[in-house]
Amino acid sequence: MRLLSLWEVLFPKQCPFCGKVIPGKARCCEGCEPALPWLKTPWDLPGLDGLFAPVSYEGAAENAVRQLKFQGKTGRARSLAPYLTDSLKGARFDCIVPVPMYRKGLRKRGYNQAALLARFLGEETGMPVCPALRKHRDTAQQHDLRARERRINLKDAYRVRKGVSLEGKSVLLCDDVVTTGSTLLEAAQTLRKAGAARVYAVTVCKTVRRADLPGEVG
């Protein structure tokens, strides 16, 4: 009989969509699984070598991410990580790099949801997590801006930490949601300038058009 780790005792695995405690090997409860807004993946996003995002940012999936990001439900990261793993379809990378937060926002929230997702994704896949990036200046909230404004807002906002070597590496950026892709593209550009050979990204959710959904035409 396997003994539970201290982490499992303090933070029992929950369905990320309704909050019910679920077995360690389950991804979510039986009631929520059929209702998930599944997406076709991987995606093409110019500026990235590939983008993996398994579900649409709506309904129960949106609720799970918002609970993780804004309501202190850090355990949601552990429950969402298997969805990230499955979306990768066995792809391997030299390291997983979480999208960083600026220190003021990190102090206010107390944690970086992207770093939590990256941690559990690393545990799921065995790939190392490398906090290679830092955000060296504060920026406006992206959700308040138009697409062009988002790109301008984040220009040169990230830097690679001193002592981190990315030369020739295949890197997987990790974040919670992708909308226009401005955050991921700016982070990817920073990683490439530091020598990364390929930069991919994985997020829990993606905002989509109807044509992006399985079975839709357009």
Write down the overall geometry: globular
Distance between the termini: 52 Å
Overall pLDDT: 87
Number of helices: 7
Q: Low-confidence stretches at least 5 residues in length (pLDDT < 50)?
A: none
Beta strands, count? 7
Tell me the series of helices and strands, N- to C-terminal: HEEHHEHHEHEEHE
Helix % is 25-40%
Determine the strand fraction and express it as a percent band: 15-25%
Biggest sheet record: 5 strands, parallel
Radius of gyration (CA) equals 17 Å
Strand-pairing-aware structural class: alpha/beta
SSE map:
Layout lengths: L5 H5 L39 E3 L2 E2 L2 H12 L4 H13 L7 E4 L4 H7 L3 H13 L7 E3 L11 H8 L3 E3 L9 E9 L3 H12 L4 E9 L12
Parallel strand pairs: 1-7, 2-7, 3-6, 6-7
Antiparallel strand pairs: 4-5
Helix pairs in contact: 2-3, 3-5
Descriptive notes:
The strands form two sheets. Strands 1, 2, 3, 6 and 7 form a five-stranded parallel sheet that branches. The relative contact order is 0.18. The chain is globular, with a radius of gyration of 17 Å. By secondary structure, it is of the alpha/beta class. The protein contains seven helices and seven strands. Helix 2 (59-70) crosses helix 3 and helix 3 (75-87) packs across helix 5. The chain has helices at residues 6-10, 59-70, 75-87, 103-109, 113-125, 147-154, 182-193, and strands at residues 50-52, 55-56, 95-98, 133-135, 158-160, 170-178, 198-206. The model has no long low-confidence stretch (mean pLDDT 87). The longest helix has 13 residues, at 75-87.
